[in-house]
Structures are given as structure tokens and as C-alpha cells.
Write a structure and sequence with these properties.
The complex is a heterodimer.
Chain A: H1 5-10, H2 24-29, H3 34-37, E1 48-52, E2 55-56, E3 73-77
Chain B: E1 2-9, E2 12-18, E3 25-30, E4 35-41, E5 48-54, E6 58-64, E7 72-73, E8 89-95, E9 102-107, E10 110-114, E11 122-123, H1 125-128, E12 144-150, E13 158-163, E14 166-170, E15 178-179, E16 200-205, E17 213-217, E18 220-224, E19 232-233, E20 244-249, E21 257-264, E22 267-270, E23 277-280, E24 288-290, E25 307-309, E26 317-320, E27 326-329, E28 337-340, E29 346-354
Antiparallel strand pairs in B: 1-2, 1-29, 2-3, 4-5, 5-6, 6-7, 8-9, 9-10, 10-11, 12-13, 13-14, 14-15, 16-17, 17-18, 18-19, 20-21, 21-22, 21-23, 23-24, 25-26, 26-27, 27-28
Classes of the chains: A alpha+beta, B mainly beta.
């Protein structure tokens, strides 16, 4: 499991974790920054993206996505800003 | 005398330290990457609390027992599922009266209370479920509960202010809340003087004359002499504008206060193309510009949490701008000194003063 810098700082400076978990959600909840990833109602925050071997979990079963073992999970915070380009004729 | 200024910015927390309020030493930042909307030292035990936020990971309270060298994040903080609300941002921390008690103002329109020194926070249901809540609307900064004031004499009395819900008083230890918005304008609403819905920007209770409250509102500057039951509008008598965010009080002279007006809600820069602090010494009957040392040409702003004052004699005044400057007056506004510049946009300023 790889964490971005601000989460790594909150995890005591550790940005890489080796975890045993059956699902993505179990893996995330095992982290010391669980309450930054999930809101108070237990939902993964909207601007937190999680990739399993490069694939966004929201395209699959979300936090219920099963893990077989050996996967690389990466937490990536959404980047907001800018405007879509517009073509004028 | 020793003053530590806690400077919350969009890029973490800075500290400025001085023994004479004229020369300042800058330290920090800590909490890098966090928006620090407010920071305050609990004078009871020296714990430093911050209302700290990040846009992807939400808001929390970070606390430090060693003035920012190390931090601990609140373990359990949020709004109950049955409320249908989720914590959006943390705004304001106020150390309480009971041992371990810490109050937290938050968006959307929420007050939370900790009884364990900031480890966990629980929502105050009497406010989040207030009978007038369906008439509350978020201001431009969200529906923020930004002012929490504890009555200096009555242990059961406290005040909160929410944009744009208005001001509320509890006389029974936060069990019930009375809207206190009489004669306070809401020019942006169809009903100009509603029971609730006012966009109060900052509310302060006077520490010595406890029945006196001051507020800088979206629609004017106001004073109450009866704990908020009635308000008198105070602008138009020397102030260039009624719009602004911060307000500072003289802790011993209840008739003296300072505000920093801005042009208007749709043109949020300091009034009259300058950085000016306006002082009243007669409870708002008249205002005078205090600008000795301040730039006479400026287009900046000072946010609602970005001013503070100490209890020394003469009183020290402090504020920070969105342009990253910290200004200090060691003598009640007669003279201004730039204590720091080119910081990130400043969200909050709080003075921690020790004799």
C-alpha cells in the first residue's frame, strides 16, 4: 500500500505498508490514517481514489473489491482545478 | 512579556514570537499541507489546538502538547448518521470550562464538544437539530460555525454564530439555543430582519462587561448591551463601509473596539484602497482611522479568524492579510508594525500572551 505525502506524514512518516487483507476496504481500515480516508459514516471520501495495480476501484466493486495477494494498492488524492478547454469558431 | 502569535495559513501553521511586540521571530511551518482555519493555546494546560483541514481528507482537530513539535489528530470526530449531515470543515476551537472540555465550531452549522482534551468530539444535537435549521443557508465560506464565546461570569451561558444562520445564545449549558438576531439586517433576504438567517461574520462577547456583545456582520457592525436580545447598528458614523470580517476588543474598556472594513460583499478588498483599522472609543458612536505604519495603498482582505488582541497594557492588536502579511500594534492602534510578510494566505491569527 502506497500513500501520498500528507497521509504518510500522518502515519508517522511511513508511506509504504505491507498488509494482509481480503478486500481493499480491509486494507484501508488497517492503516493508521483510516479516519482520513473514510468519513464519519464509514464511506470512502469522495476525493480519495484507490488504485489496485493501476485500476480504479470505483470501476469495480469499490472498497469491497477482493484481493488475491501480491497486489499494489495506491491511494491518490483527487486533483481539482482548471477549466475544460473550449474551442471557439 | 512574551507573545506567541499562531498564524494559520493555507499552507500550515506558523508562529511568531516576541518579548517586546516590536521585533518578531518567525518559526514554522508545521502541519504542512493543511489549511489551518484556527489555532489556539489552552491556557489551562498549554495544549495547542488547531482546526485543520485538507480538501481530500476533510476536517479534524490537530492538537500538540509541545507547541507544534508533534501532533495528534482527533480519533473520533464527525456528525451522527441520523442527522443526515457530514462534517465538512472544522472552523474554530474554544477551550471550555470543565476539565478536558473543548468546543469546536464546524460546517455545516455544527457545534461539537470534547470532554477528553480533544481526542474525541461529539455533536451538540440541540444546535444541529435546532428548530430553525431549515431557514439556515451557507454563506460563501460554507455554513460555518465560526464564533464560540463563553460568558466570563455565568458558567451556563455561551454564544455561537453561524454564517448564515445568525447568532444564538444558550443560558443552560448548550441544552437549548435562542436566536439573538433582533434588529440585525439580512439585506440579501426578502425579509430584511428575520428571526434567523443573518450572515454574522464574527461575534465577540466582552470579557469584563459580560452583557455586551459585538459583531461584524455581512450587513453592518453591531453592539448589544443585553446579551444579544437587542442590537444597535454602528456603521455610517466614520466607517467607510459596514462590510468586513474581523473585530477586536479592548479587554478592559468595553467601549473600545476595532474593525477592518472592506468595500462590499461583491468587492472584498479593504475599503478606500488602503489597509485601515478603524477604532471606536465610544461604543461605536464614532470611528477613527488608525493607520500609522499601515500601507496607504492596498487591495487585500482580512478573514474572520485573522485578528486577535492581548490583555497587556497598552493592548496589543494583531491581524493577518490574505496577502500573507502580519501586522501588529503594540499600542492599541496608534502605531502598526509589519511582523512578517510573504507568508501564504493567512486564515487565522491568535495571540498567546504571557506576562
Amino acid at each position: 500500500m502506497l500513500l501520498p505525502s500528507i497521509l504518510a506524514a500522518e502515519a508517522g512518516g511511513q508511506g509504504r505498508f505491507e498488509l494482509e487483507a481480503g478486500t481493499v476496504g480491509e486494507a484501508l481500515r488497517a492503516l493508521p490514517v483510516e479516519n482520513m480516508l473514510f468519513d464519519e459514516h464509514g464511506e470512502l471520501r469522495r476525493l480519495v481514489n484507490v488504485y489496485v495495480d493501476g485500476v480504479d476501484i470505483r470501476g469495480g466493486d469499490g472498497v469491497e473489491s477482493a484481493l488475491a495477494g501480491g497486489e499494489e494498492l495506491r491511494v491518490v488524492q483527487a486533483v481539482a482545478g482548471g477549466r475544460p478547454s473550449r474551442h471557439h469558431t | 512579556m512574551s507573545v506567541t502569535l499562531l498564524i494559520g495559513t493555507r499552507k500550515g501553521l506558523f508562529q511568531l514570537q516576541s518579548d517586546d511586540r516590536r521585533s518578531w521571530k518567525l518559526e514554522g511551518p508545521t502541519l504542512e499541507g493543511w489549511d489551518v482555519l484556527h489555532a489556539i493555546v489552552d491556557s489551562r494546560d498549554g495544549t495547542l489546538y488547531t482546526a485543520a483541514n485538507t480538501y481530500p481528507y476533510g476536517g479534524t482537530v490537530q492538537r500538540s502538547a509541545d507547541m507544534g513539535k508533534t501532533w495528534e489528530r482527533a480519533e473520533d470526530i464527525g456528525l451522527p448518521e441520523e442527522s443526515g449531515l457530514k462534517l465538512e470543515k472544522t472552523w474554530h476551537v474554544r477551550p471550555g470550562r470543565e476539565p478536558g472540555e473543548v468546543w469546536l465550531g464546524a460546517a455545516p452549522g455544527a457545534l461539537l464538544r470534547s470532554t477528553d482534551g480533544g481526542k474525541t468530539f461529539a455533536s451538540v444535537a440541540s444546535l444541529t437539530q435546532h428548530e430553525t435549521r431549515d431557514r439556515w443557508e451557507p454563506g460563501a465560506g460554507g455554513m460555518c460555525c465560526h464564533s464560540i464565546q463563553l460568558d466570563a461570569e455565568d458558567p451556563d451561558r455561551m454564544y455561537v454564530a453561524i454564517s448564515a444562520a445568525g447568532s444564538f445564545r444558550s443560558d443552560d449549558g448548550a441544552e437549548t439555543w435562542t436566536p439573538i438576531n433582533k434588529n440585525v439586517a439580512a439585506d440579501f433576504m426578502a425579509e430584511k430582519y428575520p428571526e434567523v438567517g443573518q450572515c454574522v461574520h464574527k461575534l465577540l462577547a466582552h470579557p469584563a462587561k459580560t452583557e455586551r456583545l459585538w459583531q461584524q456582520n455581512h450587513c453592518g457592525v453591531y453592539r448589544s448591551d443585553d446579551r444579544g436580545d437587542n442590537w444597535e447598528r454602528l456603521d455610517g458614523n466614520g466607517l467607510p463601509s459596514g462590510f468586513g470580517f474581523p473585530i477586536m476588543l479592548h479587554p478592559r474598556d468595553p467601549d473600545t473596539a476595532w474593525v477592518i472594513p472592506e468595500n462590499a460583499d461583491l468587492n472584498r478588498v479593504t475599503a478606500e484602497v488602503r489597509l485601515g483599522v478603524y477604532r471606536t472609543k465610544d461604543a461605536g458612536e464614532s470611528w477613527e482611522l488608525t493607520a500609522n505604519g499601515l500601507p496607504d495603498q492596498a487591495w487585500t482582505g482580512v478573514l474572520r479568524e485573522a485578528s486577535s488582541f492581548d490583555s497587556a497594557d497598552p493592548v496589543g492588536l494583531y491581524f493577518g492579510t490574505q496577502g500573507g502579511s502580519v501586522w501588529v500594534s503594540p499600542n492599541e492602534g496608534d502605531e502598526w508594525i509589519e511582523a512578517a510578510s510573504n507568508l501564504p494566505p493567512i486564515l487565522s491569527v491568535e495571540a498567546h500572551w504571557q506576562e
